[in-house]
UniProtKB/TrEMBL annotation:
InterPro entries: MADF-dom, TF_Adf1. It comes from Macrosiphum euphorbiae. GO terms for cellular component: nucleus; transcription regulator complex. GO terms for biological process: regulation of transcription by RNA polymerase II. This is MADF domain-containing protein. PROSITE patterns: MADF.
Amino acid sequence: MNTEMLIELVRERSSLYDMSDKKYSDHPYKESLWREIASEINQPVQNCKKMWTSLRDGTEELLKNLLQCQDKKQNL
């Protein structure tokens, strides 16, 4: 799966990740967005969601680790 394309397609649809977006809680709408993305990259919806979750969680973990490293350096 083309992860860069997936990231860009999700980025264009803020309702999937931006909690301040008015349609963030509209689950049927978000499902339709995932179907659009899956169609554009020719993958099943579940694969797209799984990859996005993996990318998001990995990024959060990386940022958390970077912040912890910065804190440790400041305390030396």
